[in-house]
Amino acid sequence: MNTLSSKQTAQHAVVVGGGIVGVCCALYLQREGLQVTLIDPAKAGESTAKWSCGQLSVGEIIPLSKPGILTKIPGWMLDQTGPLALRPQALPALVPWFLRFLGNARHARIESIAEAMSTLTHHVFADYARLLDEDDLQTLIVNRPVMQVFNTPAGVDSERDHNHLRRQLGFESQTLNADDIADLEPTLAGKFSHGILLPQWRFVTDTEGFIVALTNSFLAKGGKRINASVTHFQEAGASASAVVLESGENISADHFVVASGIGARRFFSQLGLNVPLQPVAGYQAVVKDPGVSLNHSVIYGDGGFCFTPMTRGLQIGGTIEFAGNSTKPNFKRAELILEKASKILPQMNIKNVEFGVGYRPLLPDTKPIIDRSEKLKNVLLAMGHGQLGLTLGAVTGRLIADLAVKRDSDINLAPFSAYRFK
What we know:
By secondary structure, the protein is α/β, with parallel strands linked by helices.
């Protein structure tokens, strides 16, 4: 483990945002010998990643802007029950974002984005292993692959070119027939005849518990976590000298990290950023006593959602909604997920269900930002992970620590620049 010299061990870092990306940044900064304060208004575990499918999606490197996406936008506006919806009233403000998004639907852009993303996702498990001991890894991460299932062969065919690109970049997949699906997942026997196995993917036992475990590890190593909101930075020349809390309290530090998801937008003006970061609502239903058993996290490709067995219940979700800047959730979408899931698993007990929503911070090219502010040089940026916050948390944390101590990284960070949208 690399640490700062004895002269530097007293340096202090503040991480703004205590979700999965923020806590991983805090843990990796600790490994460099820094004293770290983590600031978030919510309690540990209450973040966007809690309301996710819990997958460590190492092969999810294809951007959302797939060919043919333009023709689907009218349908998203008209059909609010589909796997991806767009609130009509949000469209005018979203037009510039969608124009950028559609610009990434070209084949050459998809290949470029996939290649860049693969440089991150190849390190997912090794970088989490540095933060968790072997016993915790086995407890928190389920060592089984993820499956995709489809109603017809068309679903498998639609992924063929993308899976070919994934294989070129080191991520395997295997086509499944009815017998394969039944062997792997007896609960789904007779329900699906077409599927794909993603042998390198994994999933966590509990999205909330995973974040809490990492936070507890951070605190046990001497970290400090403050429940508060940051309003802005105090500046000293070309650097930040402190963060200012809503209470008016100042917390000074040598290094700062903005890892607050969609909340990072409040700092853009001060940091001189022009970043098209949009919130995308992802809805989940947690069935507490489902009465059915699944061995794997299973993506239902035609439904746009997945099932993940967790210690707190069967988590069902993944449907997303472009709602613009509205933070009022439409839980009818979560109810819709549950209704569709019940048709697949009619024996499921749905008497005890918790609904939730997470606002994924999405950029038009589906790549995150891992960078340094050009205006305030000691402010580091870790944001825009979209649906891959849980997957890329530890990788991002390691790369942010490299930036903090000015160490050359083994990954080219140019594709993840905050200034690529100029």
